[in-house]
Amino acid sequence: MLRELLEEHRGEELDLYARTINPQFIRLLRTIGFDRSWARAEGAYLYDSGGTRFLDLLGGFGMYNVGRNNPRIRAALIEALELETPGKVQLGVSPFPGLLASRLLERAPASVGRVLFTSSGTEAVEAALKLGRAATGRSKILSCEHGFHGLTLGSLSAAGDAAFSRRFGPLLPGFSRVPFDDLDALEAALRAEDVAVFIVEPVQGHGPYFPSEGYLERAQELCRHYGTLFCVDEVQTGFGRTGRMFAFEHWGLEPDLVTVAKSLSGGYVPVGALLMSSAVYEAVFDSLEHSVSHGSTFAPNDLAMAAGLATLRELDAGRLPERSAQMGELLLERTRPLAERYEIVKEVRGLGLIWAIEFQEPAGGSRSWRLLERVQAGLFAQLVVVPLFSEHKILTQVAGHDSNVIKILPPLVLSEDDVDWFVEALEATLARAQKLPRSMLRFAIRAARANRPRGPFAKTA
Predict the structure, then answer these.
(1) Res. 211: pLDDT tops 80
(2) What does DSSP assign to residue 264?
(3) Alpha carbon of residue 356 to chain centroid
(4) What residues does 68 pair with on adjacent strands?
(5) In this structure, how many other beta carbons lie within 10 angstroms of the beta carbon of residue 213?
(6) What is the 3-state secondary structure (H, E, C) of 104-162?
(7) What are the C-alpha distances in Å from 368 to residues 346, 365, 380?
(8) What is the pLDDT of residue 160?
(9) Quick one: which of 127, 132, 142 has its CA closest to 280?
(10) What is the pLDDT of residue 402?
């Protein structure tokens, strides 16, 4: 049935999506030349309808750590379907959730002892905030500027980037932010002993920005001292991304709360989880009456749990965290010299396979750069992302609104040949982009103009 339906509507996917879901998104894809008809995917590669192979360094925003369409995850899903399990009995349990929770806890620090499953990362964050308030009897939530924790209202209230939240206020009360990597500001915010949860990404995804030596360890100590729950958001950094199973392992942290999602199912099934300390669990789920204080109708479903079990096995069998560390070191070794060769490159940074390159105005100034920045901040990075895709068949992303940073989150199955492909393409693109030829400037201005609001409530001058 599905093959017939897809064949019947072959080539219509962009128009159909525009008519029924989000025409502005399709307009964006067409403006920047990303309007491909995708046919299939495998490992670190995407293939369009013409059979052209693309190197996927976006990885579904970090979903495909074990590679796209991993055959062993797919086999586990087929096996789960063939078992015809009863699924969500609701007043009863399936064996799958307990098995996956056990495997997660085996990999987690001793500070956590219970797992609550969700269907996404933002739901895991919502659970952390909600249960943290109940466990401590406090209402305040503290997070970091420039942080990202999801787009539901609670998660958005904790996020530190106004580009995501400014149109959706008022946000929830009781939320405040401190600068990332600033221990003095953190202690000042905790000193009143009224903060329930401090939530922090070990590596801020919208940068990415990395903590100074000792910051996270001392942040954990401050939380312990002032009675605040220490929550590490591992939705993007978890499951091998930084070269360890969890990023917090780099700093020997023992959080009270850990949020995970994205790559836990190998990219096949929506899934997330909150790992919590036994003390948090016991404070919230403290009676039969409160045994269902939090949950979600569709989580944990058997397909998500089966995919999660297979994904953890694949991460171990393929030694993918170790591979991430090795490929990340190679990538930094090959790309850090770009900051010396190109004035336009401010910095190259990374940890495992979360990597970024940041651009800056050349020394002595540049009229073309200033023109781009006046039209729209961060346009230069787009001038690198677009030719990487159109000319070199590499999918990357700009790392946030108004950001002159390009970020990659490739599948952890990335090879040395893939690193060579990317580095050679990046250098060729930078050599051209640094000169800011007129064709690039025209494209940037056209793209920025296309970004002006349209619709019945659009503001006009």
Answers:
(1) yes
(2) G
(3) 14
(4) 43
(5) 8
(6) HHHHCCCCCCEEEEECCHHHHHHHHHHHHHHHHCCCEEEEECCCCCCCCHHHHHHCCCH
(7) 17, 9, 10
(8) 85
(9) 132
(10) 74
pLDDT > 70: what percent of the chain?
Answer: 94
Residue 58 and residue 408 in contact, taking contact as beta carbons nearer than 8 Å = yes
Query: Residue 455 has what pLDDT?
Result: 55
Residues whose CB is less than 8 angstroms from the CB of residue 289 and which lie 6 or more positions away in sequence, other chains included: none
**Arithmetic mean of pLDDT over the chain:** 93
Tokens of 441: 């400037």
d(CA 12, CA 343): 44
Q: Name the β-bridge partners of 276.
A: 114, 257
**Residue holding tokens 């978890």?**
238
Mode of pairing for the β-strands spanning 272-276 and 257-260: antiparallel
Contact present, 274 and 255 (Cβ < 8 Å): no
Report angle CA 378, 32, 38 to the nearest 5 degrees: 130
**Any residues with CB less than 8 A from the CB of 307 and at least 6 apart, and which?**
73, 76, 77, 264, 265, 266, 268, 269, 271
Q: Strand 354-359: give its sheet, edge to edge.
A: 345-351, 354-359, 405-408, 397-398
Torsion-angle region of residue 458: left (phi > 0), alpha (psi -120 to 50) or beta? beta
Using a cut of 0.90, tell me whether the model's pTM lies above it: yes
Tokens 């580095």 locate to: 423
Cis before residue 337, ω within 30 degrees of 0? no
Q: 250: which DSSP letter?
A: G
pLDDT at 106: 97
Element containing residue 398 per DSSP (H, E): strand 397-398
Residues in the chain: 461
